[in-house]
Amino acid sequence: MTTKTYRTIYEFSALTRIFHWIRAIVIVALVATGFYLAYPFLAPDNMTGEPVGFLNALMRSWHQIFGFILIAVTIFRIYLFLFTKECRLERRSFLDTLNPLVWIRILKTYLLLGGHPELKGTYNPLQHIAYIGVMLLIIAISVTGLALYANVYHQGLGGMIAPLVKPVEVICGGIANVRAIHHILTWAFVIFVPIHIYMAVWNSTRFPGSGIDTIINGNKFEQEHN
Predict the structure, then answer these.
(1) Residue pLDDT, tens place only, 117-170
(2) 28/30 Cα distance (integer angstroms)
(3) Is 172 exposed, middle or buried, given 0-12, 13-18 or 19+ CB atoms closer than 10 A?
(4) In this predicted structure, what is the pLDDT of residue 209?
(5) Partners of 220 in the beta sheet?
(6) The whole model's pTM is what?
(7) What's the rounded Cα separation, in Å, for the pair 124 and 130?
(8) Which of 49, 144, 177, 220 could form a disulfide with 172 if both were Cys (CB 3.0 to 4.6 A apart)?
């Protein structure tokens, strides 16, 4: 009888994990408040003729607060990925993404035709491409959000960033198109989140060594081959 031994690999730093969960919470909040701003489905409790029920304004304020949190966290996350030694294993994922053999093996894995391939980095090619796409999506929705913000607030921060985001409005063909694109990008998050959760659970049940707990405690476990 052979005993299986495993080695621990420190995959995600503490800041990476914290930023992941902050972004998760913020994205859910942004989707909820954003849909309310697009389709106000709630009414204030005090439905009177007096202008005191500013529920839409409250939702807009929270939407902006969560939006700036997402932008700040994303900037720091990009810095961590590019420049810190704690994220070097994540950067090594490019080696797997550029390797056709790893692509073939991971596709066989998802088609239930083989086991999980050994990786040089943190993410398999499909995960890596998906995460890069999500990062680009966050950047796009942040830029369009800033353009909408500067269109309303002409002083302070809005006035400072207005010259920077004005080209976005011009390229999109007007502020109405910016708003429409911002809303469409929200639907991309709505589609991605359940798929991401499903694949994370699937991967955890099929390959327990590198499951959801990795983004909680930072460690994954690989079986050692003697």
Answers:
(1) 888 888 889 999 999 999 999 999 999 999 999 999 988 999 999 999 999 999
(2) 5
(3) middle
(4) 65
(5) 9
(6) 0.87
(7) 10
(8) 177
The number of helix segments (H) and strand segments (E) in the chain equals 9, 2
Minimal CA–CA distance to 216: which of 6, 5, 24, 61?
Answer: 24
Instruction: Give CB contacts under 8 A, 24+ apart, made by 149-155.
Output: 149/64, 149/67, 151/175, 151/178
Nearest alpha-carbon partner for 219 in 5, 16, 9: 9
Burial of 108 (0-12, 13-18, 19+ CB in 10 A): middle
Residue 34: count other Cβ atoms within 10 Å of its Cβ. 22
Spatial contact of 7 and 224, defined as CB atoms under 8 Å apart: yes
Residues composing the chain: 226
Residue whose structure tokens are 């309310």: 36
pLDDT in tens, 61-102: 999 999 999 999 999 999 999 999 888 989 999 999 999 999
